[in-house]
Amino acid sequence: IYRPITDANTRVAEMLSGGLDVMVEVPPDSLSQFKDNPAFKVSEQAGPHLWFLILNTKDGPFKNKEIRQAANYAINKKALVDNILQGTADVAAGPTPPAFAWAYDDKLQPYPYDPEKAKAMLKEAGYDGSPVTFYVTEGGSGMLDPIAMGTAIQADLEAVGMKVKIETYEWNTFLGKVNPGLEGKADMAEMAWMTNDPDTLPFLALRSDAVPDKGGFNSGYYSNPKVDELLEKARQSTDQDERAKLYKEMQDIVHDDAPWVFVANWKQNAVTSAAVENFKLQPSFFLMLQKVAKP
């Protein structure tokens, strides 16, 4: 029996009271309750997940690459991961999650937290202090703790001199605003993707031809012909080593262009009652329940 319970606190209460046998996406604040209780078993595993900020590269301040890079330096991603997400995620370095080990560029380093460098870059880029509109969601698929994270991101950006106006929406309304594109509406928006191939997210959300009016999810209108070329070649190749080389080159370019703020890679989690047998998390994020049983 599947029970959709969208509110995280209600899910936790149901699990603690015995109303559920399995719960996925345990809120960070609640994980310790289950880890310290012998009546439950907790599973954790790194997954192919990326939590990021889409930046509007078509109009507004983020048209400027240096301002996009400054935003990446200004945000304390480690504090988000350690304090708000309480260790349930790792800091992201780029557009490809490290769960895709064969295609992931492990030489790529996350943008370090450097607010002084961010301030200097904003000044050098001529940022005029105009306010930035930031779409935040109340919650949704893979969105971790979006309101708390959005508030912390706002504080970090304002600390380097970037005024940020948050607009908060429930998930479906949020998608209705973000997916058609940010042009003329907002400067940045929260987003999270979970995929089964290193191709999926960049192909659907970073190609020039993936802009919303062509049916894609490139809501920030990022465009780099070299990235387009690399993604097309990787799709056509049947040699995994060649594909890996192409994806790694793509990651380097996207990291430098900074069309997104790369924030976190979530460690997927789940909790079951101690009686449940054979439950196992999958790297794909699919729930494979064929052998799961309880007395």
Q: Can you walk me through this structure?
A:
There is one protein chain. Helices cover 36% and strands 18% of the residues. Helix 3 packs antiparallel against helix 5 (115-125) and helix 9 (225-236) packs antiparallel against helix 10 (240-257). The protein is globular. It has helices spanning 8-17, 28-35, 65-74, 77-84, 115-125, 146-159, 171-178, 200-205, 225-236, 240-257; strands at 22-24, 40-46, 49-55, 89-91, 132-137, 164-169, 188-194, 260-273. Strand 5, helix 6 and strand 6 form a beta-alpha-beta unit. Strands 1, 2, 3, 4, 5, 6, 7 and 8 form an eight-stranded mixed sheet that branches. It has 295 residues and is of the alpha+beta class.
Please sum up the structure shown.
With 295 residues, the protein is α+β, with helices and mostly antiparallel strands. The chain has ten helices and eight strands.
Labels describing this entry:
single chain, 295 residues, alpha+beta, eight-stranded mixed beta sheet, 10 helices, 8 strands, 18% strand, globular
Topology record:
Blueprint: H1 8-17, E1 22-24, H2 28-35, E2 40-46, E3 49-55, H3 65-74, H4 77-84, E4 89-91, H5 115-125, E5 132-137, H6 146-159, E6 164-169, H7 171-178, E7 188-194, H8 200-205, H9 225-236, H10 240-257, E8 260-273
Parallel strand pairs: 5-6, 5-7
Antiparallel strand pairs: 1-8, 2-8, 3-7, 3-8, 4-8
Helix pairs in contact: 3-5, 9-10
- Rg of Cα set: 20 Å
Q: Which consecutive residue ranges, at least 5 long each, have pLDDT under 50?
A: none
Terminal residue distance: 16 Å
Task: Give average pLDDT, whole number.
Answer: 95
Order of helices and strands: HEHEEHHEHEHEHEHHHE
- Please give the largest β-sheet: 8 strands, mixed
Tally of separate helices: 10
Q: What fraction, in percent, of the residue positions are helical?
A: 25-40%
Number of strands: 8
What is the structural class? alpha+beta
Q: Note the beta-strand portion.
A: 15-25%
Shape: globular
